[in-house]
Amino acid sequence: MSVSLLADAPWRTAPTSLAVIAALEAAGGPGCARFVGGCVRNALIGQPVDDIDIATPLTPDQVIAALKAAGLKSVPTGIAHGTVTAVAYGTPFEITTLRRDVETDGRRAVVAFTDDWSQDAQRRDFRLNALYADPAGAIYDPTGAGVEDALAGRIVFVGEPATRIAEDGLRILRFFRFLAWFGRGAPDAAALAACADMKDHIAQLSAERIAKELLKLLAAQDPRAAVRLMADIGVLGEVAAEVDRSSPRRINQAADLSRFERLVGIESEEHIPPDPLLRLAALLPDDPAAAAATAGRLRLSNAQRDRLVAALTADGPISGDMTPPEARRAIYRLGGDTFCDRVMLAWAQATPITGSAPWAALITLARTWPRPSFPLTGEDVMAEGRAKGPAIGEVLRGLEAEWVDGDFSADRARLIDRLKRVVRLS
Question: What fold, for 1-152?
């Protein structure tokens, strides 16, 4: 089945795309390369296209040779599974040989290459992802329902849902991720039932794969319904158990989603871009040790771990009725970014739910107030006659506390005068 719908897709006619297609067709002839998956789906439904994937019956060795002959760089990113990354003038394209599954164990598959486009489509996860488009813009829909699914917002497995999940348990999380990003209306009943029945397959997945999929899900504009559904059928509990096997309730369950759901609502109401890491924080308890453990299990970066820990450390109250001096003191102590994270989390769990103005004002203050640096140093203290040693730090900390309590109004000259008095009296 084909229908010409992508004639005006700019990425399809970009010089970089044309160069890669031309290189492949020079080796395999016209029709040997088609765009596939997300780029076709997103172009069809009017969503941005970030990554361009290409499918071809050419083997990886043939792909590499074709790219070399055209003067394009190739990177063997997944040769065992038939994937080569082409780089055309700085733009990457993932090129994958048509495949069929020979053996699967729920985590990885042994594949055989094929020249049958329908066989390749049958091993993909959802019908709206099993779409191909040729260089002229004609869409090929081997399942016969991928185009309709994409336009209707239906997330339906290719073939039997249980078969697809048995091949790779990650497809459970992918179902909810695509539901969050593209789903409309009631979820597919067969898919949902299979995810519920086979949720224990999540235990076969590495925490890294879970993390990648979970953060992609949380980056959707509004993932609340998908996350609530995950909780309702027990999938969220399985994710939590794999994130931290020592305490399966590190990620909150269905009854505890209110902070997360309110946070997403605030972001939507205030036109704040989705923040998947902060949304993950909203799903976790206010426990820095638990946050660090979660970050470790998910193999998050050090910066991501530090942000989670800082956001979930309750070492000072944050409230919507903070005065500007109180807020400035907190911003100075925490830093603007951590202060904003804690404001957002406090705002999301405020009881009763208050208006947005005071909370938004705190965010604005943190983003606009130039956080000052304490004007004195240890050299200033020694210049007044104090010997080098621990006492210098004590003097500086005391003066800094006074300066902060005074709303940072004392300038360096006034602080020096105060320093002189402290030294004389001590």
Answer: Beta Polymerase; domain 2 (3.30.460)
